[in-house]
Amino acid sequence: MATVAVMGPAAALTIEFDFDDDGFFAPQDRRDLLQAAGDYVGGRLTDSLTVIDSSGPYDFFPGYSDPDAGFVYDAARTIPEDTLVIYTGGRDLSEGVAGEGGPGGYKTSPATQEWLNNASNRGQVGDTGLSSTSTDIGPWGGAIWFANDGINWHFDADPLSLEPFSGIDFFSVAIHEIAHVLGFGTAPSWNRLVGEDGFSGPQAVAAHGGDVALSGDDAHWQEGTRSTVAGTSQEAAMDPDINAGTRKFFTELDWAALADMGWEVQAPDGVAGVEISPVPLPASVWLMVTALAGLGMLGRRRSRNLTAA
Ligand SMILES: [Zn+2]
């Protein structure tokens, strides 16, 4: 939760994509659609995330899991305020997996404790890095990857309007994976709220009517979990899979979980006119959309050589 009063209207977060790609995102319309997914998610988040500044005496090297290369670090870079950076591209994923995503890690040059603390939580002081105590999250970003082969992708140039389609909806998979970058199923502030009966965050419990059962990985809602989008029932975006011919927006339950993890979630604005209607296509192709377990586990990787500075 923000602890500093912000003057004026709260600004949405910017989600910036860094393409480390083998061709999947060569068509500009695919990049535009991914940005639309980022804007859809970031547009309702109003946290004040501080800059992680590499322009001065200290350097921040974001790191992330790449299915092709393992865990890699980028060159030192500044993460602008109120901005998340997500590395992305097409990759050869396991059969039946449409996308993978999770938060990143990082290493730094030797720096002051204050600078290191800021790199860790970006001013979100409830982010302690520990699952026992974290009530908030202040990440720099992470990585999401999309299957090159074996998926009949549907790219919708206008994802906020809905027409019948076949194929696996790229927009739906993108927002699902972005949620993993935001810590859904992966962050200490998520883990703190996971118990034997599922997820017990108070806003999610209110939206669901009780603790929310989780899938076996404790990183998704139980398959088939439903909630609402603008009052209309929909399978939650953060259950483990997606049906062909289906668009899944974030439901009230999905947003509530992000709020429980410490994100400042504002009421819907630009999506007020969205109508969700059942798409009458056969439920024939179920494809897993899974969190990349290794990413979550690496979420706090860092390399610090502390010196007095
Ligand atoms: Zn997932």
Textual characterization of the structure:
By secondary structure, the protein is of the alpha/beta class. It has one domain (about 15-295). It is built from 7 helices and 15 strands. Strands 1-4-7-5 form a 4-stranded mixed β-sheet. Strands 3-2-6 form a 3-stranded antiparallel β-sheet, with no helix packed on it. The two termini are about 30 Å apart. The site of zinc ion has 6 residues, from helix 3.
List the helices and strands and how they pair.
Layout lengths: L13 E6 L8 H15 L17 E7 L3 E4 L9 E9 L7 E5 L1 E4 L4 H9 L19 E7 L5 E2 L13 E2 H12 L6 H4 L2 E2 L2 E2 L2 H7 L17 E4 L2 E4 L5 E3 L8 H9 L25 E3 L4 H5 L12
Parallel strand pairs: 1-4, 4-7, 8-9
Antiparallel strand pairs: 2-3, 2-6, 5-7, 10-11, 12-13, 14-15
Helix pairs in contact: 1-3, 5-6
The protein binds zinc ion (ZN).
Number of helices: 7
Low-confidence stretches: 1-8, 270-309
Mean model confidence by pLDDT: 85
Bound molecules: zinc ion
Q: What does the main sheet amount to?
A: 4 strands, mixed
Give the overall form: globular
Helix residue percentage = 10-25%
Summary keywords:
309 residues; alpha/beta; 4-stranded mixed sheet; 3-stranded antiparallel sheet; 15 strands; globular; disordered N terminus; binds zinc ion
Question: TL;DR?
Answer:
With 309 residues, this protein is an alpha/beta fold. It has 7 helices and 15 strands. The relative contact order is 0.19.
